[in-house]
Amino acid sequence: MTDVALSRPAASPHASRVPIREALQGWSLVAPLYLFVTAIIVIPEIWALYLSFTDYSVGRTAQFVGLANYRATLSAAEFWMAAWRTLQFVAIAVSLEIAIGLWLACILARLRAFRGIIIACLIAPIAMSHAVTATMWGYLLDLNVGPINFLTEVMGFGRLPWLSSETLALPTVAFIEFWAGMPHVLIMLFPVRAALSPEIYEAAELDGATARQSFWRITLPLMMPALLIAMIFRIIITMRAFGTVWILTKGGPLESSELLSIYLYKTGFSYWNFGQAAAIAWLMLLITAAASSLYMLRLYRDAAGTTT
Question: Nearest 5 degrees, angle CA 295-CA 298-CA 304?
């Protein structure tokens, strides 16, 4: 054995290197994707970063003003109110999406009859554009002819101004965002829940565990990485929500549903201050990164813990 091991030729340090021709072939295949991403994402972001340091509007050249746009934005009470409303909007929508999406995933994993039809019905909102979603819900919530107000009146609550009340407008549009975004969470969580072995639950049942104990001690810990990924994606997407809210309320009434995205739009296209609008866009990026970084750190720690 020793003689055989000693007589074996030493591995060349260059043996694991990919030949240049194969490397060039690989890069030629992925280069179009990198160029596409650079063209539609990186270059516009760099241009927006440049504009955020300038005083730029339509019809005049950009003048460098340094951090003036950031100081003006951070000193504006309207920005902080919009940021607070955005955090409330995200908290309501994403919390409901994760909770209901996980609940439905657990139910569908146990269901056998008509599961495909039920899943198709639940993910149907994905096929709707923001305009269709806003138009449909605008009709359902209409004060005079909306079916939902007809039901609330029959139940004795009267007709409620869902979209024209300072108190109800923000929770209402957050619920509509949840309705439109929950199918994305369901699509991410259902395969993970369906892949969990039934033998684990059978063993827990034999040990006397209830359904609630099985959920908290088996289902939730095993699905936590998928939950965190779904939460990160939904936070990033919901922070930028614009179309449905703009069509339904345009940020009203009295700016009670004005999110950061709507505040950015008004700054850029109502007041034509593109420099400050670019600064708001980059501040939104930083807020989104801060809001999702905690979940990313938790996901990284969980992944590192499973590999050690």
Answer: 140
